[in-house]
Design a protein that fits this description.
The chain has 233 residues and is an alpha+beta fold. It is built from five helices and twelve strands. The protein folds into two domains: 70 residues, no CATH class; 146 residues, Immunoglobulin-like (Sandwich), CATH 2.60.40.10. The strands form three sheets. A five-stranded mixed sheet has the order 3-12-11-8-9. The protein has a five-stranded antiparallel sheet with strand order 4-5-6-7-10, covered by helices on one side. A two-stranded antiparallel ribbon has the order 1-2.
């Protein structure tokens, strides 16, 4: 990081000399290029001398853009999992459609996906068992396992929904539906333990929904891209 002081003090023998910065100030865009090493080589020495002379406003700009550049470099190294990115994008899309239609939706947070775990050496990712997902929202958790049927295009989805207010007692049956833009693909109801099982053929824009008491609908986007071939024999 570049740091300049208001004035440069010459430490040579004799009277102390102070260098004042030149009257010209460089623009913020020019300092961005300077920090990113995009400044023409013919101009860079002049800009460095300007900083060394102690221009406070320009030094502050350089320090600001240096911090921004360091933050951006750290952020670019953090690549979120594809399934997490898909979940967020699909969630925004579902919420926008629901608001337009005047419906109330709850989209829980994707807290765990077995696809996030690196595959063991010598084992192809996704071939060692069902895909496991965990969604959470306040006092509700939804666990889902997805696995391809052998020698079939169909997927088997099993899971369990737990609601804090119904812990330790038989749950009221909830309607569970897998649908796409084209309509309903499969449906069932939960048993007294909140468990459910569905079978379907993957399509684009899939989602699984749960109808709770009071008309609230819980929606979870499903990624057909991540499911295709997962756990297939």
């Amino acid at each position: 990081m570049l740091v300049a002081y208001p004035y440069f003090q010459n430490r040579s023998s004799g009277p102390t000399e102070m260098k004042k910065p030149s009257a010209k100030h460089y623009s913020s865009e020019e300092w961005v290029d300077f920090v990113m090493h995009q400044t023409p080589q013919s101009q860079r020495p002049d800009m460095q001398r300007h900083l060394d002379a102690g221009c406070t406003p320009c030094t502050q700009l350089v320090n600001l853009w240096a911090r921004v550049g360091q933050f951006a470099a750290r952020e670019s190294a953090l690549q979120p999992p594809d399934s997490a990115v898909h979940h967020v994008r699909a969630a925004f899309s579902s919420m926008a459609k629901a608001q337009k239609a005047g419906r109330e939706l709850l989209i829980p947070r994707l807290s765990f996906d077995s696809l996030w775990q690196p595959a063991l050496a010598g084992i192809r990712s996704g071939s060692s068992g069902p895909r496991k997902l965990l969604y959470t929202s306040k006092d509700m958790t939804i666990e889902i396992h997805i696995e391809a049927e052998s020698k079939s295009d169909r997927m088997n989805l099993t899971g369990q929904i737990s609601i804090g207010s119904q812990q330790g007692q038989s749950m009221t049956p909830l309607a569970v539906v897998i649908s796409s833009e084209e309509g309903r693909l499969a449906s069932t109801v939960t048993n007294g333990f909140g468990e459910f099982h569905l079978s379907y053929v993957p399509e684009a824009d899939l989602q699984i929904s749960f109808e709770l008491a009071g008309g609230l609908v819980v929606v979870i986007p499903l990624s057909d891209r991540a499911e295709r071939g997962y756990g297939r024999i």
